[in-house]
Design goal:
mainly beta; Jelly Rolls; 6-stranded antiparallel β-sheet; globular
């Protein structure tokens, strides 16, 4: 059984400027998993760097409020919302709330640096 504790995962600044902790990634653990799972935090008033992935991605909002931009669409996300980000879509999220925006990122297939373009 593999259990990853959030606070045991190293926090780093991702290419899109969110604070990220990778929980599950088939390239880092010996697991048969086709996707990667990460925990992201974006401080109040901050915006993630616009970027796109050649893969699909899902954000699931845990706390805070974010203004999600996917290509030309904009929507407000709150806790309990899940948003699908299609492959090759230009995306970023702005923390428009009054607390840290915390969300889960699922990338399928698993995230790889070469699949990401940061603008």
């Amino acid at each position: 059984m593999l259990i990853q504790k959030l606070l045991d995962c190293d926090e780093f600044v991702a290419g899109d400027n969110t604070l990220l902790r990778e929980l599950l990634h088939p390239g880092k653990q010996a697991i048969a998993l086709g996707y990667s799972l990460a925990h992201a935090t974006l401080p109040v008033g901050k915006t993630s760097q616009p970027h796109s992935l050649t893969t699909s991605e899902v954000y699931y909002i845990l706390s805070g409020e974010g203004e999600m931009h996917i290509d030309s669409e904009i929507q407000i996300l709150v806790p309990g919302d899940a948003v699908y980000i299609p492959p090759n879509a230009k995306q970023f999220i702005y923390n428009c709330g009054d607390e840290a925006l915390v969300f889960i990122c699922i990338v399928d297939p698993a995230w790889r640096k070469e699949d990401e373009t940061v603008y």
